[in-house]
Amino acid sequence: MKRTLFIVVSICVFILSIALPAVAQEPIDLAIVGGTVLTMDSEAHQIQEGYVAIRKDRIVDVGPKSRLERLYHPRQIINAKGQLAMPGLINTHTHIPMSLFRGIANDLTLQDWLEHYIFPAEARNVTRDFVHWGTLLGALEMIKSGTTTFADMYYFEDEVARSTKQAGLRGVLGETWLDFPAPDNKTFEAMEAFTEKFIQEFKGDPLITPAVAPHAPFTVSPEHLKAARALADKYGVPLLIHVAETKAEEQQIEAKYHARPVQHLKNVGFLEKSVVAAHCVWVNDTDIAILKTFDVGCAHNPSSNMMLASGVAPVVKMLQAGMDVGLGTDGPAGSNNDFDMLEEMDLASKLQKITLMDPKALPARSAVAMATIEGAKVLKLDKEIGSLEKGKRADLIILNLSHPNEVPSYDLYGSLVYSIKGCDVDTTIVNGHILMRHRNVLTLNEPEIIQKAREFHDRILESLKTH
Ligand SMILES: [Zn+2]
Questions:
Q1: What spacing in Å lies between the alpha carbon of 301 and ligand 1's midpoint?
Q2: What's the CA gap between 53 and 136, in Å, rounded?
Q3: Is residue 211 part of a domain?
């Protein structure tokens, strides 16, 4: 009898020992298993055989596979063996619907480009339909080159928001204000009312942060800059603006307001809180001190600054002063002309090196930080995105690391900045949703979007002939 009882107890203990760990495993929706994980957290952890646990829209754990595999029971597994998982890239300044104007007017100065090509082309072509398809085209390219969040300034920004949500991307989206009629709103009052309605519609959205985007100090009056600040304050949303992009802007603002662009924005009370300043090329030490005091983030756009010959932003000085500096592509209509953030990292680093004649000026690791966690700080979203950490949103990308240009890799940061390209991104995940797997975009109809882009090309060319 004793012997029988012993056998029964032994069997029970054996069954429990097998069953218990499975019972204790926490259910999760998705696990990225086995690849190298570049966290971009404050200690710059790199995990060789990593594991990222995702539940709904959040990262619930990041660590070595050997430890985490036993703790979680994933509904879906992505085997990332031999690959690299890292935070999704953050484009801090662009005009996404301008993808349909890609390369329409190359090799011009900013002033010439804006006044003689872009503003007229926009007046004749930018409709709600244009913005919808332009956003989808840009989103398709962003997903395929590893961008998961972008900051945008354009017209019909509510349409940009809807199309961005359709693609599954995250956006800080600013409705553009100008002192002359825009494609969507012909008067200041209409612009202001449109923007308020847009903010009300998207405030609190899990993917969209609505914003107010006065174009620049030279295209928006002090009175309207103040109104933009007031509207942003009313709803607690950010302000996006181009600042000190060219020497011509600096001269124009000095002549009109007897102050440099940054000083002028300070004088009108625009800089009080949450401003993303695109470019900051023509800023001196005093300007940098002002931007730092008001915690203004800078969106640095190396391709655009080089292509329009606007100048070289003092990125190293801004970083040394403690400013948050992220990277942006700017629009693709003659000031880039693509949305490839890996290229921006490469150019950002090399532009500082050659300008300062110092190969150590902006090392690869700093460039990767600017495209991830620093970009998140610029957009004031660093508590939510920018690094792979427990509790943050599940925005990440997986790169192959097996293409000829990716092997061998002695230094991951160096590989990312100097040899890996946007087309090496294999998988893109935003808010826990897989937007692209093995380069197939799951949220958008790629052939349809490419076809539409070709149709717009013909229509746009025709519109420019007839005027
Ligand atoms: Zn711009």
A1: 9
A2: 29
A3: yes
